[in-house]
Every structure is written in C-alpha cells, then in structure tokens.
Amino acid sequence: MKNLLYKTSRGQYILGDSQKLIENGSLDDFKNKVQLILFSPPFPLNAKKKYGNKLGDEYKKWLSDLAPLFTKLLKKDGSIVVELGNAWEHGRPVQALLSLESLIAFLNNPKADLRLCQEFICYNPSRLPSPAQWVTVNRIRTIDSYTHVWWMSKSDYPKADNRRVLRPYSKSMLQLLKRKKYNSGRRPSEHTISEKSFLTDNKGSIMHNVLELEQMDQERDLRLPQNMFSFANTNSNDFFSNECRRKNIPIHPARMPTALASFFIEFLTEPDDLVFDPFAGTNTTGYCAEKLGRRWLAVEIDKKYGKQSIIRFKEPKLTKTLTIKKI
Length: 327
Ligand SMILES: C[S@@+](CC[C@H](N)C(=O)[O-])C[C@H]1O[C@@H](n2cnc3c(N)ncnc32)[C@H](O)[C@@H]1O
Description:
- The protein starts with a strand and ends with a strand.
- The relative contact order is 0.18.
- The protein is of the alpha/beta class.
- The chain has two domains: 4-168 and 206-324, Rossmann fold, CATH 3.40.50.150; 169-203, no CATH class.
- Helix 2 packs parallel to helix 3.
- It is built from nine helices and 14 strands.
- The strands form three sheets. Strands 11-7-8-4-3-12-13-2-1-14 form a ten-stranded mixed β-sheet, with helices on both faces. It has a two-stranded antiparallel sheet with strand order 5-6.
- The longest helix has 18 residues, at 56-73.
- It binds S-adenosylmethionine (SAM).
- S-adenosylmethionine is lined by residues 17-19, 40, 42, 52, 252, 254-256, 279, 281-282, 284, 299-302, 305.
C-alpha cells in the first residue's frame, strides 16, 4: 500500500483520509473481509473550524455518508462499534444533540442497512470535571463522565459470544458457590429462584452494558473481563503514555480506552479476524487487536498521530515484527 506508515505481522497503519481511500478503491482488497470496525470519530465542532473537524449539518452528512462505505468492507456477520462522547453548546450549560443526531443519521442511512444491536455506556469515574465552567465554577451541572458506545451490524445475528468476556464473580457470588446453598423461593420482583439457580460455576458472570473503566470504591473489585487486565488499568499510566511523557510528546487528546477496545475485540471477533479503525489516532484499536491475536488495519489522516502511535508497538513484546517505512 502506497501510504503505509508501519506494519507488523498482523496489521498495517495507513496515512490518509479514510473516506477518500474507500471511495477511490484503495481499500478494495478488504471488501467483505472486516469482522469489526471500531472507531471514535473526530468530534464535531460548533465553534472554530479545525483540520479534520466539520461543523453542524456538514458533520452530520459526512458521518452518515460513511455508513455505506464502511459496510462495504464489513463481513455479513461483522459489527461496527462507535464510541461517541457528549458535546456541549458553546458557552452554554446545554448539551448539544449534534453528535447523537449524527450517530442516528449514520445508523439510519438507508444505503447501509444497519441496526443497533445494543447501546453500551462507557463510564469513567476518574474523568476530569467537565464542562469545567458549569461543573466547577458555576456548580450547576454534574461531571460528564461517560461516552456512548453503539454496536451496530448488517444482520440481527452478528458474530458475538459473551462467554469470551466473562467478568470475575463478585465476592458474594464466590462465597455462594463455596457454600453451595442459596436462599431460594419467590422474590418481590415475582421471579422464582430455584434451589439450584446460581450454583453452577460458569467461570465468571455475564458482562453488563455499562463498562466501568476504573475502580470507584477501593473496597470494591473492578469487574472487567479477565483479559482486559493484561492492558494497564488506566490510560494515563500505560507504557505508551509513560513513553510519550518521557519524550515530551504531547499525547493525542482523545484516545480510546484500551479496556473498551479490547472488550469489543474479544466479544465480537475471534483470533485472526480482521479489525479496522478508520480514525486510528494512536492506534489503540490496532494495539489491542495485535495483543489479542487479531489482524488489524488502521487509517489516520494526521501523520503526527501516526508517528506517535508507533510508540505503542515499542512495547518489548510487540517490537519483534514491527517494520517502519520511511515517508
Ligand atoms: C477521536 S480521534 C480517535 C483516537 C483513537 N481512537 C485513539 O485511540 O487514539 C479521531 C481521529 O481521526 C482522525 N481523522 C479525522 N478525520 C479523518 C479522516 N477523514 N480520515 C482518517 N482520519 C481522520 C483525527 O486526526 C483523529 O486522530
């Protein structure tokens, strides 16, 4: 590929505009081959126009137009997962609807035939107070601490298995499994719990659609799936962030949490499946895919972020197959 910045044995990072690259056929080799498209789009701007960020209706149309382009690359049972934060009206304590409207326009684009499989909330208890003016100065709003994550697909039954993302049992469940005794009977909620309910050890419990990224309470265990613990628990204290700080490189301001990326990669793909991020930035998606034994493809418009993302692959276990192209 012409604009290749670097590759590993499992993936490649391409510099360019993902919309144009799909439209001009540069990514045709990947048609109907991608199992998961995972991304957070550049944010819409409601004030100043910046490179890569569009305004209002122009943004909505741009995001919506991407849906049929992306589905062209997707396998029949593939998934698209989009992470989108909340936006606020400029200078007002009012939430903007543009990002959600744009996401609905993407989902509803008739040329793409997508449906919403499930909405997830990605909750980050240690998110810095924002929007700062209304939260910390005027004290009239609470901290905006979650992002919307929408899982969509071309079919009602995309590849998915929640047994791949079991979370560790709670302490009380572990005790219950040990005691092998349960307070059975009818509950006020009208559910009837049989004597044997809850006594089978399934090696973990089923994930909820709220991903809590960090521990809120030191006394309480953080219950993310086991594999996600092979990634550093906080985005600000991993190999990549530490290296960026050591080298005085200003870190990409809108990275996707590794826990979020790895959760969806494990849940919706199997080893060797192909994962694509069209707005790759620091390549959180490719990095998590690489570690989880999936193949990956990343596209990013800004070379500075492309170069920064190479740092992720300087992690001792990942450098072996890394090849950087001089461009
Ligand atoms: C929200 S960030 C994604 C960050 C990424 N998920 C990560 O973890 O680092 C969006 C990225 O999209 C890039 N971008 C904007 N327009 C683009 C386009 N048309 N094609 C490819 N990348 C684009 C921006 O430069 C930015 O790095």
